[in-house]
Amino acid sequence: MAFLKEYFLFLTKFSLVFFTSITAIAALSTKQQELDRISALPGQPPVKFRQFSGYVTVHDSHGRALFYWLTEATATPEKKPLVLWLNGGPGCSSVAYGASEEIGPFRINRTGSSLYLNNYSWNTEANLLFLESPAGVGYSYTNTTSDLKDSGDKRTAQDALIFLIRWMSRFPQYKYREFYIAGESYAGHYVPQLAKKIIDHNKSNSRPVINLKGFIVGNAVTDSYHDSIGTVSYWWTHSMISDQTYKLILKYCNFTAEKSSKECDTAVNYAIYHEFGDIDQYSIYTPFCMQLPNQTTRPLRLKNTLLRRWVSGYDPCTENYAEKYYNRPDVQKALHANITGIPYKWTACSDVLISNWKDSEDSMLPTYTELIKTGLRIWVFSGDTDSVVPVTATRFSLGHLNLPIKTPWYPWYSGSQVGGWTEVYQGLTFATVRGAGHEVPLFQPKRAYILFKSFLAGKELPKS
User: Fold this and answer.
1) How far are the Cα atoms of 57, 302, 356 from residue 143, in angstroms, in the given order?
2) Could you say which of 185, 260, 350, 414 is catalytic?
3) Catalytic residue flag (residue 185)
4) Which of 36, 147, 315, 386 is flagged as catalytic?
5) What is the pLDDT of residues 403-436, one digit of tens each?
6) Domains of the chain
């Protein structure tokens, strides 16, 4: 009896300690969440959904910390999935693009003084988590300067995985929640690479907290060779370059080579600087910004050739408004950003990262093949007026997956208008968005919203 009494007392004490520890951890998580809570952003219209933002350290000794911004769903956020949005570059900000001119709840006015609502925000359907990645992008930073000179695909994916694990410890209500990844452009690398990291991580856990269900990427850099062929084909078929230049590029450019030849560079540069004219290469039928901007650039990749562009969009100067707004001290204070005094201004893209990218996979097709086998929901879409990562590039690349067709090519509808075209394969859905440039939700917000709703529901795009 004495033994049983002592054993009972031991179990009681153990249970009390265990319960106290769990309670303490939960309280700490709640406290950290509240510290990240955004009361309101300067110039923000009143909203009912909650917002959080702040930093998660992903490498302790190097002092690498990634900045996030969470906008909860407008209704019943506890029942809605979590969607992580990543912009590409490499080196461009998800706050500048995804949050502020594409899928986020707010838009910035021309003076950078106030915000207004986006009628087609994706947070009506999901909780949106915007991540500035890798370190050196936007508000994300590192205390080790050399990190800015040797970023690449592998570290970016690993840091993003660590971010998610640590972020979910801070926000335990999202553990086990349906989780999706979305992005565009060079996030055609980030998104499937992170998906693979999560799948591999989950294999070593009996009950993984990151409940990855699928991903969706737009105008995605996919395969260096086929993307390049498809891009040049788009230029020619859309009358952006002459027959002669087209033939010269095909003759002199070896898209499998590590370095482009002098003749190839000459032909490509002639096309861009003499034949394109003053257009926005990311949206060839809309005007480019006529302001003299604090030039923020994003790269156009043709193998190892970096080409520059001005800002894009229906309001082609919208990136300038973001740079005004997010450099305001009161905005940074409200966002809990720049708390360490980053020694450079917030910019939409980082030229340092763009020009010093160290590792980039030539093809994501093997990764797609591997991920398709896991049963993830995978959608790839293309705005059809983008000449940087055009629809022809994506179709050439995806065609080499040799996937069986489940639902043949058909037009899908947004209201009474054709929203684009789509084909459903075994394991992957491809869709175009009619009249959209590189940033699809910026140019065609309603059509992008229908695309996203269909993706989350796991339903084919509407046929009428």
Assistant:
1) 11, 32, 17
2) 185
3) yes
4) 386
5) 999 999 999 999 999 999 999 999 999 999 999 9
6) 51-222+361-457 (3.40.50.1820)
